[in-house]
Amino acid sequence: MVAANWKMNGLRRGGRDLARALAGLKRAADAPACDIVICPPATLLFELRDALQSAGIALGGQDCHSEGMGAHTGDISADMLADCGCSHVILGHSERRMDHGETSKMVCGKVAAALRAGLCAILCVGESEDDREAGTALEVVGEQLRNSLPEAGGSADIVIAYEPVWAIGTGRTPNAGEIGEMHQHIRNLFDALKTGGKSGLRVLYGGSVNAENAGDILSIAGVDGALVGGASLSAEKFWNICAHYGR
Length: 247
What we know:
With 247 residues, this protein is α/β, with parallel strands linked by helices. 41% of the residues lie in helices and 14% in strands. It contains 10 helices and 8 strands. Strands 1-2-3-4-5-6-7-8 form an 8-stranded parallel beta barrel, surrounded by 5 helices. The longest helix is centred in the last third of the chain and has 19 residues, at 176-194. The protein is globular, with a radius of gyration of 17 Å.
């Protein structure tokens, strides 16, 4: 899976142009051997739905509330995302955890809501630079994962995105050994919590993924795709990342 997180970027005209460009690239080329998910701002979801879905590109939200409806001004429910045509939603992103004070318990409630609405949850976990330097990255990410996973769901409707906080938007990335170790740690813990055995979980890497480093990152054992931020705002750059699965 290669998922695009547009974050708080894109107005209607630019969003339509980018979606149409991606759809055109997918129709014109041999389709990469990966699922492609575009997660634009909520204001663009319905606007982009038809262009993306007609080309076989999935639509996702960037967050949802833990409740299905109610007095929650400014929030959006998982059912609303599904009603817009979404099949996926990003949850627990570090920017939500930091900017909005989201705890893993809150994220857990959101993941449960997404599953009830029939969405695939892209659950984000990741350590800070201080955690990495202190040698506690595995413990920190493991605790996030334990506390963010609801009882329901499994590898069919939950994808984990490992995004070290210190690598997001900085141009820095962990080395191959660090990425591989963390992805295996996440997979082992998920399997222990959910199945007691191999589950087929997909673990994506996110954090300054671009067309130049994607090949190296996606070739690491245990990396099942990418969650792409800034590079997803260019159709050509994002498509070049997806195209690594066709080479």
